[in-house]
Amino acid sequence: MARALFLKPIKGAGGDLPSVMGFIRNAEEIEHYALHEADLSGYAALLLPAHLDQRYFGTLSTKVSDWLDRGGTLVFNGHVAWPMLPEFNAFVALEKRNLENLQIHRIADHPVFAGVDMADLTYRRGVAGFYARGCNPPPPSAVPVLGVGPDRVPCDWVYERPGGGRIFMHAGNDLWMYASDKTSARRIVPQLMDWVLGAAA
Amino acid sequence: MTNRIAALDAGTYYHHRSLYEDRYRGFFDRIVYAPELAETDLTDIDVLIVSCRTDPAVLVPQGDTIRRLLNQGKTVVAMGSTGAQQWLPKVDWTDLPTNFWWWKEGGTLGLEVQAPTHPLFGHIALADATWHYHGQYAPPQGAQSLIGVTGEGSVFYEDRVTTPGCMLVTALDPMYHHGSYFMPATTRFLDGFLPYLKETHKLA
């Protein structure tokens, strides 16, 4: 049975970043600063939190790239700020963050977002802007999945690496914060798990 | 005479934006990668800012370094969600459910300025400190709450009695939200708070 590994976020004393473990199966989580000691060979997927020490993760690029070469799926949440992997480029924020510019649009069908109403991503209790405020620019042959604003800036994209493995990029808060959402956005977590573990490849 | 400030960088994207981008870069005489604090020479530094959400698991093993700065009469600023009660003395913290939505529900957050003559309020207004908080402090005897919840605890206090230095302890997490391009009040807070620390804050 394929398994996924979640990296716990760095966090302060607050309890505002609940674990996703109660919502999924076939997954484990490890402490943030244990990643360098983790044997990734037993995992089909590695899922990174937006609260990531990117300087630490950047020291593990060879380990992670080697694991991707062997067919791993990496899910990244957040804004790219530090050098980490060659496929990553530094976050570019939207210049204007008004309502029109914060609308989320589907660019390509993807199993992770099947049945998810884009309005449920654009708005949270009627307020826009939680989902994405820019993008981590994709490599040229990546597939843009969701875009933000009239220019469809690719806030979510998927990249099938020529050397093996896949990268799922989301330039925003952890996708699993929708695990208990009351809207169609709650479809994301189970569909993401199916996809990273191969059931919907 | 201005204060020389060091800020901790925990490697997050929001610290990168809050510390390294042009808007605030000039306030920091040194930016220290948080896991390397204990091996960094801070002799010439007056104020250490422990940036929002720096992992207490990184800070606790370096607590002696932080407390030594206080014993030397320096100032330590503990920003929100850094677990200050785990690495600073006499910090009494209560975790509370966070009300993110008071502004949509017609209510208020209940914050008030509790030391109106404090020089901080020459740099920020209450509205600049009003977004949400993740819990409250009970400041120790002799410390001064600067911003608190009416009839409840403090979300920002100054302690000049517990150590030879000064501790500024807050539940507010502006670097996280400014660094996420979110919530303009958090940017206004930093626009005022950093000049306060640089130019106005009196060392112990």
What does this structure look like?
- The complex is a heterodimer of chains A (201) and B (204).
- Chain A has 201 residues and is α/β, with parallel strands linked by helices.
- In chain A, 14% of the residues lie in helices and 23% in strands.
- Chain A has a single domain (4-11, 19-196), classed as Rossmann fold, CATH 3.40.50.
- Chain A has helices at 54-58, 61-69, 118-122, 188-196; strands at residues 4-7, 27-30, 45-47, 73-77, 92-93, 104-106, 123-124, 127-128, 134-135, 143-148, 153-160, 166-170.
- An 8-stranded mixed sheet of chain A has the order 2-1-3-4-12-11-10-6. A two-stranded antiparallel ribbon of chain A has the order 5-9. Chain A has a two-stranded antiparallel sheet with strand order 7-8.
- With 204 residues, chain B is of the alpha/beta class.
- Chain B has helices at residues 13-20, 22-25, 56-59, 63-71, 174-179, 184-200, and strands spanning 5-9, 30-33, 47-50, 75-78, 93-95, 111-113, 135-137, 144-149, 154-159, 166-170.
- In chain B, the strands form 2 sheets. Chain B has an 8-stranded mixed sheet with strand order 2-1-3-4-10-9-8-6, with helices on both faces. In chain B, strands 5-7 form a two-stranded antiparallel ribbon.
- In chain B, a hairpin with a 6-residue loop joins strand 9 and strand 10.
- The chains are: A alpha/beta (201), B alpha/beta (204).
- Chain A binds chain B through residues 10-16, 31-33, 50-57, 78-82, 91, 93, 97, 125-127, 129, 133-134, and chain B through 9-14, 16-17, 33, 35, 52-58, 80-86, 93, 95, 98, 101, 104, 134-135, 180-182.
Question: Can you give me a brief rundown of this structure?
Answer:
The complex is a heterodimer of chains A (201) and B (204). Chain A has 201 residues and is α/β, with parallel strands linked by helices.
